[in-house]
Design brief:
This protein is α+β, with helices and mostly antiparallel strands. The protein is built from eight helices and seven strands. The protein starts with 6 loop residues before the first helix and ends in a 5-residue tail after the last helix.
Length: 206
């Protein structure tokens, strides 16, 4: 669902239909001279705002969506272009990660991205209740969470050496990618057991 759908009746912007062939991104709007756009992807629900400051909001963007950053950050918000809705707005920077420019297929697939918890229960219903508890204790279901001391990262809080040993780590994926982190957590639980997580070792999630 285009995350800025509420913007259409307010400003009269038209919706963008994703083409089946070549895709031409819309040019930046409101970018400073010489600005080189970058891309981010949401790793959690992120609030979308009308302005760089203030509380007027369009609602939330779901996890897994792509946005092009068309100006420097201000007050923790990014001026972004939403290719699904063909609109611009201010996006809270927390809950996003920098990514390479997506392909049209990437953008189309992101519209149907699953909620990470739903994905967990879909992929491993036998392990999901315990992993749900572990992830809640380790990161509070915050995909961007990182332990400053151990550098454990992502939903299931993988330390770098453990992440590098997972199939997802070997593919070069980031531990901050929610679905990749969940896939790795499922693999780790099946291959190495529950004691890999501190919350379990301390007696929780039994």
């Amino acid at each position: 669902m285009p995350i800025l759908r509420r913007l259409i009746p307010l400003f009269g912007f038209s919706s963008l239909a994703l083409p089946s062939g070549a895709f031409a991104w819309q040019p930046p709007a409101g970018s400073p001279p010489g600005w080189h756009s970058t891309w981010v992807q949401t790793v959690d629900r992120v609030e979308v705002f009308v302005h760089a400051d203030g509380d007027r909001s369009f609602g939330e963007a779901q996890a897994g969506l792509y946005f092009r950053v068309d100006a420097p950050a201000q007050d923790g918000r990014l001026w972004v272009y939403d290719p699904l809705g063909d609109t611009w707005a201010w996006l809270a920077q927390a809950g996003t990660v920098a990514v390479a420019a997506p392909t049209p297929d990437d953008v189309a697939a992101s519209a149907h991205a699953l909620d990470p918890r739903e994905y967990l229960y879909q992929q491993a219903p036998d392990l999901a209740p315990r992993l749900d508890c572990i992830i809640s204790g380790e990161s509070g279901w915050k995909p961007w969470q990182q332990n400053v001391r151990t550098r454990a990262a992502g939903l299931a809080q993988f330390v770098p050496s453990t992440w590098a040993a997972t199939p997802e780590g070997k593919q070069g994926l980031s531990p901050f990618e929610p679905l990749a982190n969940i896939d790795a957590a499922i693999w780790l639980a099946r291959t190495r057991g529950w004691t890999q997580w501190q919350v379990y070792s301390e007696g929780a999630c039994r």
